[in-house]
Amino acid sequence: MRPFTSITRIFMITYFVVQPSLTCSFLVSRYTVDPSISDFMKTQPSTLLDVGLEVTSSESLSKLYIDGIKLELDCTPPSKSSSATKLPGCTGPQPDLSSGPLRMKTLSKGKFINVDGQQTVPFEQEAWEMVWINERPTGSIICGFYLPKLIQRNDAYLAPGHMYLNFRVWTIKGLHLIRNEKMAYERSLAKHMFIQDEEWLKMKAETNPIMKAVHFQKAAAANEMIGLMRTEKFNTVPMEDADTIHISKDLVVAKQGTMWVKGVEATLMGKKDTHYCVGSAILKGGGIDKDAKDHDADDGASGNASE
To answer: Which residue from 28, 120, 184, 209 lies 20 to 30 Å from 232 (Cα-Cα)?
Structure first.
């Protein structure tokens, strides 16, 4: 057998020794978990959520509505013997950004109506987690279930398997800041859209070829700026207080959430696990009473003042 040359040895050392170490150092996240998670777990032993689900069909306009789901989010980890659903945050590439799996109870099963009448949804293996990157204005509450049987109404259905609900969670201060940022973004976007339309109309009405080119250049510049500014960053920002629910004195959850199911995706490297959005989840109640929250805050302030 021909011995390895020096170049071959260098290549093998680089590929099998240096490259994995570089990869591992790259995968070590520079992010840390937000302290809001631990603060919430210390101050709020459990939270109640009233949830409705809307499953859409990719083949028709059929929809499956599931109502009456009542969940209790407990801030204690599940027992070792339980078969809780594996959650995407704590089992993903950066589990340190998650609270870890926590207990969740289904206090009331969801109900829906199909051709056979009213049916119930038998969720199993319930668990939840909170995922939040430090210094980001928003995190996520993810509720996981296992559905043991097919749930269907016309063409809209939920297949047996794991499913997840994702709700955005905000600090009150962070939500205020991101709302202001969104309003500034919308004003700037509207300004450039106005300039684009105005310069386009001027170009069409102009007869001087030089001025026509000037107006076209201004319209094109505004259009380019619009393209650079476009973002989906603010799509999930609730702009009205009525669109949120307080889950503690410092945290609110957006009522509008999303529903995901686990699936398999074919890639060039083979099959891999992935998640598909199949509908929306809507919070219809739960959390803590806002008046009670304000009352607690007032009591705390008066207590400090008396001291």
So the answer is: 28
